[in-house]
């Protein structure tokens, strides 16, 4: 027996072969082998650069099956170069160059690929000399010498799970450079995404049926994979309009415009939660001053909470410890023509509430907030303190149900512990991260990005074709 080590058997390629590009989420592609070309080329469209100038990236989409423009795979990659390439007909074109793994029959190696529109070509990909390893021999008179793949893979349930994580372009709609905004940028960029902070009020919109657009600083905003709304209470209406425009374009929004508006309208929010049988303090509302006594009677005896509908961070929330005090506060609010709710005061909560952070239908963290000395309100903005807390199953279920009422994928649900079970005070569609990350030590922002990546992960997208003729 010879002691000479086995030398690798040369791979034989015909002039056309089935290949995979796993880094791009393309499991099956027919490629033409062309030793006359130096660099490989992939059919790509909607090519768009993004990311920092020091390390730019490119987004593009691929139609892997010839003649099937309804099947779309979104891709992204780091740009290696921009190179002038001469096509087979002699035309020269500047193309972006990326690197990706080429896989054939269990063997894989990195190759350089240029991106170009090959819609007029029979093959979606061309393999040039640089992609062919030294031990590959070409049989120019034959094809499919390697195992054949099938386009059927694009129609299987496993396709989504097999998709690689790609760099995303994300917009944070925020007017403030605060902890939450900075964390969203920091966490996103650490994952390789490009995160851009956009002042919501400086967006303006082109509203039309065929090409709805969002503009900013004199330019049309690019396609974003997702937007994260951080809409302040003072700009709720306009912020919701901007989000609706992104929704019209087809951009994924962490929280919907409808959910944000509903959660900000305290009267409507309580009506929705009551309809969904979510536990909350007894609540009453009336417009006429003649109904003050009846209004208080619906809620119960003093002490009572009188809460402005537009209140945020504990502002406009008053504790009336006696019936006379409650009447005075109600009269004062009516004199200001302000809309308000009256609620019973949950004494056993003792100035404490629980903030549950719900992301993607799960409670990812919870903290107990205690009001400052002498203050029944537990808001951290008003000097309250917070610490991590274990919540009960009933509290967890209540928080999840409350967020679901408004169809919010990210929500801060504030609830009280009462003798009759958890009572929801408010559902916040733009919760801050500083207090809860600091008190629990959990990476809340990371949990949010986990959800975003799962929701917008590229998978084959089949565009709807126009309906055929009726059989009737």
UniProtKB/TrEMBL annotation:
CC annotations in GO: cytoplasm
One Pfam family per UniProt: Rimk_N
Tagged with keyword DNA-binding: no
GO molecular function terms noted in the UniProt entry: ATP binding; metal ion binding; ribosomal S6-glutamic acid ligase activity
Ranges for domain ATP-grasp: 270-453
Domain of life of the organism encoding this protein: Bacteria
GO biological process, one term: SOS response
Alphabetical UniProt keywords: ATP-binding, Ligase, Magnesium, Manganese, Metal-binding, Nucleotide-binding, Protein biosynthesis
InterPro entries: Asp_endopeptidase (IPR008503), ATP-grasp (IPR011761), ATP-grasp_RimK-type (IPR013651), ATP_grasp_subdomain_1 (IPR013815), Peptidase_aspartic_dom_sf (IPR021109), Rimk_N (IPR041107), Rp_bS6_RimK/Lys_biosynth_LsyX (IPR004666)
Names of the cofactor(s): Mg(2+); Mn(2+)
Family, similarity comment: In the C-terminal section; belongs to the RimK family.
Identification of the protein by name: Probable alpha-L-glutamate ligase
Taxonomic lineage of the native organism: Bacteria, Pseudomonadati, Pseudomonadota, Alphaproteobacteria, Rhodobacterales
Gene that produces this protein: rimK
């Amino acid at each position: 027996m010879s002691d000479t080590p086995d030398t690798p058997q040369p791979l034989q390629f015909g002039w056309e072969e089935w290949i995979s590009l796993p880094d791009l989420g393309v499991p099956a592609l027919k490629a033409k082998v062309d030793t006359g070309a130096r660099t490989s080329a992939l059919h790509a469209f909607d090519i768009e650069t993004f990311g920092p100038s020091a390390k730019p990236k490119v987004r593009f989409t691929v139609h892997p099956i010839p003649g099937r423009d309804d099947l779309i795979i979104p891709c992204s990659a780091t740009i290696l170069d921009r190179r002038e390439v001469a096509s087979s007909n002699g035309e020269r074109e500047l193309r972006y160059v990326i690197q990706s793994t080429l896989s054939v029959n269990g063997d894989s190696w990195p190759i350089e690929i240029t991106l170009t529109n090959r819609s007029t070509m029979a093959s979606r990909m061309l393999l040039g000399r640089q992609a062919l390893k030294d031990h590959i021999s070409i049989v120019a008179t034959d094809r499919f010498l390697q195992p054949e793949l099938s386009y059927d893979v694009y129609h299987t349930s496993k396709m989504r799970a097999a998709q690689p994580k790609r760099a995303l372009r994300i917009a944070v709609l925020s007017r403030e450079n605060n902890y939450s905004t900075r964390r969203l940028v920091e966490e996103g960029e650490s994952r390789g995404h490009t995160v851009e902070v956009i002042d919501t009020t400086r967006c303006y919109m082109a509203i039309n049926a065929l090409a709805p657009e969002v503009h900013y600083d004199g330019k049309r905003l690019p396609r974003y994979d997702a937007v994260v709304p951080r809409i302040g209470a003072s700009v709720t209406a306009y912020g919701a309009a901007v989000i609706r425009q992104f929704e019209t374009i087809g951009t994924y929004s962490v929280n919907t415009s409808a959910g944000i508006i509903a959660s900000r309208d305290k009267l409507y929010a309580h009506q929705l939660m009551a309809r969904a049988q979510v536990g909350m303090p007894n609540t009453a509302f009336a417009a006429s001053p003649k109904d003050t006594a009846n209004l208080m009677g619906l809620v119960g005896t003093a002490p009572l909470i009188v809460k402005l509908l537009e209140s945020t961070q504990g502002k406009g929330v008053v504790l009336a410890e006696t019936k006379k005090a409650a009447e005075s506060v109600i009269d004062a609010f009516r004199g200001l023509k302000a809309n308000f709710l009256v609620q019973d005061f949950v004494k056993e909560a003792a100035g404490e509430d629980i903030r549950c952070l719900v992301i993607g239908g799960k409670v990812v963290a919870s903290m107990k907030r205690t009001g400052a000395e002498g203050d029944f309100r537990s808001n951290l903005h008003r000097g309250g303190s917070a610490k991590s807390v274990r919540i009960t199953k009933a509290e967890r279920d209540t928080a999840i149900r409350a967020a679901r009422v408004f169809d919010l994928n990210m929500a801060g649900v504030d609830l009280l512990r009462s003798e009759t079970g958890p009572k929801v005070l408010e559902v916040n569609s733009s919760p801050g991260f500083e207090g809860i990350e600091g008190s629990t030590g959990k990476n809340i922002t990371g949990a949010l990005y986990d959800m975003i990546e799962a929701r917008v992960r590229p998978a084959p997208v089949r565009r709807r074709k126009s309906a055929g003729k009726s059989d009737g």
